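Quick one: co-fold with 4'-deoxy-4'-aminopyridoxal-5'-phosphate.
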Amino acid sequence: MDFTPERSDLLDKDRRHLWHSMLPYNAASPPMIVTEGAGSWITDIDGNRYLDGMSGLWCVNAGYGRKELAEAAYAQLLALPYYPLSQSHVPGIRLAEKLSEWLEDEYVVFFSNSGSEANEAAFKIARQYQQQHGEPGRHKLVSRYRAYHGGSAGALSATGQAQRKLKYEPLGGGFLHVRPPDSYRRPDGMTEEQFNLLCAQDLEDAIIWEAAESVAAVIMEPVITGGGILVPQQRYLDRVQEICARHGVLLIIDEVICGFGRSGRKFGHHNFGLKPDIVTMAKGLTSGYLPLSATAVRRSIYERFGSQGDYGHFRHVNTFGGNPAACALALKNLEIIEREGLVERARILGERLHAEMRTLLAHPLVGDIRSFGFLLGIELVADKATKQPASAETVKGIIGQCKSRGLIIGRNGDTVAGFNNVLTFCPPLSSTDEDVTFICETFKEVMNNQLEGTPVA
Ligand code: PMP
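Sure, here it is.
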């Protein structure tokens, strides 16, 4: 297929026919038309190269241009392009087994195509499990403000960002939200530890006040990513696990971004020694090369299904979930991550990125810097004393200046709450040392220009 007609013609067709996610078409700043990628770098239709400091949308962990991944999918497409998982196929079996190995515990895996679907499946499994466990009233799901869990009805209901929900309410019933452990914005006079424990107590209070016998599960990421890289203390997650166990509430851990090495361990929750009942994953499972997601369920929970005749089965079908080519590609992706030691590499690169960026804490616009493996958030403020978030113009201006120097970074938080002020760095785990040098030097140059009064825009 030839995809190389004129840029202006393509942009015109883009404007007329393509509905982009998140941003409306803006003639003053039209979308990049990306044509190629290699390693951590992408190239647009005009031949401009950019270091993709966001791995696409937190996906391309193994980097761009991996021929081996394309070949794994190609071979599987020729052998067997499709068969539903009401029966079985070899790549599906092998991948499910491999994911259990990566999870370092015994899990049974249900495949879907996206992170949202993986979370929807988790909610249904949690509710049905509770019913079949003699707890028919347990249907509520608890999550945190600022967290993102997906765009479909249930996953959006669990999402705690007003900007994503305002125009679409009312959403599903039975979802409630609690305070996230945003230590930077803790109340004055409180230590970080006191605040983390307060947030955990908030969760327990919500469960108690809602009536524990009405709550099916809690869903959380190990570290809130899209809501601004909010890293909890170990004690917070210890308490969360203890609270869930004490009240008979399942713990669902969303590893859609934190999984597959991003955190410097295979899964984000491994850093905290958590033992989740259900783990959801997507994005990095295939490094974004094909759509695939998974809901891994602890074997003891799975065994509850099917124990009551036909009615006891999980009544949930996903036509494309566990597509053989996507499973074959995912297996190859995991093999590459293991072979090249990318989990360990993420830890090393993340430590370096954090250490180098920390010098920016002296910058008047930088309120806080937080990291989790090879994932970094820099919170920009207009005033360090009041912590008033930097304006959208300032944040966008810095991102624009990075882009004009060939570096793509992200921005996260919640526009409605006024906290869309966290610059986000999530480069491929396969990045080279030179790539990290480029990220740090480019970003610091842009930040230093702000000091010299260079207009932001
Ligand atoms: N959970 C988290 C933590 C995510 O970041 C996302 C997507 N950004 C999702 C779920 C939803 O994934 P998808 O867009 O593949 O549906």
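If it helps, Residues 114-116, 119, 148-150, 221, 225-226, 254, 256-257, 282 surround 4'-deoxy-4'-aminopyridoxal-5'-phosphate (CB under 6 Å).
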